[in-house]
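Project standup — Tuesday

K.O.: blocked on the structure for the chain from last sprint. Re-posting the sequence here as requested.
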Amino acid sequence: MTESTVLVTGATGYIGGRLVPRLLEAGYRVRCLARSPEKLEARIWAGHPRVEISRGDLADPASVARSLKGCSAAYYLVHSMLATGDDYAEHDRRLARNFAAAASSTPSMERILYLGGLGETGPDLSEHLTSRREIERELAAGSNPVTTLRAAMIIGSGSASFEILRYLVERLPVMVTPRWVQTESQPIAVNNVLEYLVRALEVPETSGRVFDIGGPEILSYREMMRIMAEALALPRRLVLPIPVLTPRLSSLWIHLVTPLSHRIARPLAEGLRNRVVCRSTAARELMPQTMLGVREAVDAALGQLASDDVETSWTDAGPIPGDPDWAGGTTFVDRRKIEIDASPASVFRALCRIGGGNGWYGADLLWRVRGLLDRLVGGPGLRRGRRASEKLAFGDALDFWRVTGIESGRRLELRAEMKLPGEALLEFDVAESGSRSSLTQTARFKPRGLAGLLYWTVVSPFHGFVFSGMLDGVRRTAEALPPIAATPEPQAPRAGGLAS
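H.V.: unblocked you, prediction finished:
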């Protein structure tokens, strides 16, 4: 057991959020660098005595230097997954350059560990994978040795690649696919990735080296679709590869069928054209472990989904925008209140069930139509769902909303991430009212230009159905719930088991 302090960047993301408890189990002190520390407050490990959360931004060298102070190692787990323009690769290079410079100036720093992308080298490497290699070079340009692990598709509940595969197989009995469906890949279970990340820190021989990591099987994406269909107990899917589907068209197709935005799907689709197979077995030789096959990894991930125990999700990462400036200009407000014959704790519990597979308590058809329209114009729509069926935490995605404020038993604030000509918030306030409770719902919309004004004019007549139905549904659910005696104490981090 060691008392070394390790910095984890990207702790609010998919891999970082699962790595922290693994490092704690191994005995390390962990410092998490986060732009929005509030996003980590609900993690079961956030209150651990060996966890420290540091507010900072990789774009700010001073905050990076503060976070690195006293650390012996650092995990760099940050990537721009949104193809929002030609500058995203340069943005990633600049962040890595800042980090390498700050680490080089930190006397206690011994090494950096980086999770990159597996793929054949050469001029045909996709822009996304090329960006991963450039980050490797920027980190290695500093004075600290860098250990790089290159992984292909990571199979785990909540991973972007896994969700694409699952939704395509679930929703499409016949698939017209790009030629990349025949491309070979060596997928790896998220549990094995996490084991490699921890073991790499413990094995001195890994310092300053690059390792390919993958599972025991080399399969085409078409074969993985077959395995997914079998795991879901679905008939075999008919796959028709055609040569005319470009990465751009493929990403739009993925956007329409799966919960992922086309901005995330495009770099993933581009990367799928590259063969991603390990060229070395050095990682297995230096850090032996039991490797899960694709079917085992898929079964484990589906099991986590079925038990509503998804530890982290691709929706977790990304910045939380600051509150909109509601002062000045036109702001439309729709406020409604209802009395409920239940305790505030029961009301809040019922409130936290909204969205995802639970629905929105009322006017479900209108919600589905709004979600479909949002998908058609490039928004997240309703398919993004939610990470857990009954629990919400700061930063959680909730269909086309994001949790930007939460006080247990008292208040919930959602910020709209749907495509809108303006900014929208939906707030819920719970208060004790004698022997009952009151629930106040406030919708705020700050329009952007004439389009915003027209939008509010068109949708406001529907609020009577949508919002009143939602409040009435919360009331019915809260009144049917058994009384809550007390709020349970936070649990200690889980030890062992599959992180799927």
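K.O.: great, moving the ticket to review. The chain has two domains: 5-155+182-218+265-291, 332-480. The first strand starts at residue 5 and ends at 9.
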